[in-house]
Amino acid sequence: MELTTIILVGLVVVFTGISKSAFAGALGVFAVPLLILKLPVAEAVGLMLPILIIADLMSVKSYWRMWDTSLIYKLIPGALIGVLIATLMLDSINSNIIGAIISLTCVLFSVKNLYFKKVELNILKGTKGAYLMSLLSGVTSTIVHAGGPPLIMYFTAIGLSPTKFVATTAAFFATINLFKMVSAISVGLFTFDMWLYALAFAPLAIFGNWVGLKIHDKINKAVFLNVMNYLLLILGLWLAYKHSIVMLI
Fold it and tell me: Is residue 164 scored above 60 in pLDDT?
């Protein structure tokens, strides 16, 4: 790797570690677009998976058993089905259309939560909401590495506390990304060299995790939920911009 590429990957690893331990991985959607500034798309996607797994493991260790176990049981089946569907249909699904749908949903949901708080979305609060959003998370995580937004929408809707929010997200994606690894291997996106590169940057993931924990400790529930909604709005606008540009090209 060139020095500039090493620096960029290092920054992405730190950024991912902070995102995972402070903001439930909400900023992870920016990681691949940053990597493709210096790497081919397939290589960037392949490298990002072990980086995510390492960051997930750091977060799981930091928030050990602080997650909501009952939620995990609700979310994992739907997400695994989503990963399977996305893997089987990888060649026929238009990732730009998926990205555009997710972007619109993020914007509408965040605007509703920030400016129309009295409007209730009861459909998201029950078991059906958990199944639906976890399924979407599995699909979008596999196709466009944007599995966070659907999960964030669900956790925000049910008003999960900051610690359970981050801890449950970490446990969820630690499980899902292991299944995604099998999917990535099957389509040739994942190699042993990718793991070696990711392990070389592991100390930076630990540093990012530490910084994220410090940030998380300073935020109360109301501020945290507002931050998550603003992040959803930013993510939605970013995805809309990114995929509209790609579709125009």
Answer: yes
